[in-house]
């Protein structure tokens, strides 16, 4: 089964590509308090989604909120998938603006979460969507961006192809 996001991520002028359909088998859905300045995540619900949360500022000036964290070992190693709702993407926020936002979210949300949970992920996937899209379902009207990173030495290394 293919990974949920291609290694290159989505829609960036640096030669990224997009995702149309996401399919993956989840091994676990987990969310705990995140060690981010000024906010904490709520516990995950039985349906695998989060209650409304504080908005997280990012470099583009938009605000996003964490929707869910998925842990996936289908690609043959642990991948942490951090799904954010970013209503302005595809409108006022360009793919290039969102690229810096995803870099920031990897470094300030994903890496601290993995460290706090004692997890060692081979890849971190940051996704932004302009609306909630159930994981693994196609949503042709939704705008979604994906980036994959390799966590290394407390940094997020972009995994281009």
TrEMBL record:
Pfam families (UniProt xref): DUF6497
InterPro entries recorded: DUF6497
Protein name (database record): Acetolactate synthase
Organism: Antarcticimicrobium sediminis
């Amino acid at each position: 089964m293919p990974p949920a996001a291609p290694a290159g991520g989505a829609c960036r002028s640096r030669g990224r590509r997009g995702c149309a359909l996401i399919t993956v088998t989840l091994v676990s859905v987990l969310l705990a308090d995140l060690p981010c300045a000024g906010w904490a995540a709520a516990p995950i619900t039985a349906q695998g989604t989060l209650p409304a949360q504080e908005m997280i500022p990012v470099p583009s000036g938009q605000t996003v909120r964490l929707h869910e964290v998925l842990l996936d070992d289908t690609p043959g190693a642990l991948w942490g998938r951090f799904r954010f709702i970013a209503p302005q993407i595809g409108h006022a926020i360009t793919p290039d603006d969102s690229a810096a936002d995803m870099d920031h979210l990897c470094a300030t949300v994903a890496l601290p979460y993995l460290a706090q949970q004692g997890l060692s992920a081979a890849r971190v996937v940051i996704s932004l969507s302009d609306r909630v899209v159930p994981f693994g379902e196609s949503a042709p009207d939704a705008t979604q961006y994906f980036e994959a990173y390799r966590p290394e030495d407390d940094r997020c290394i972009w995994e281009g192809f």
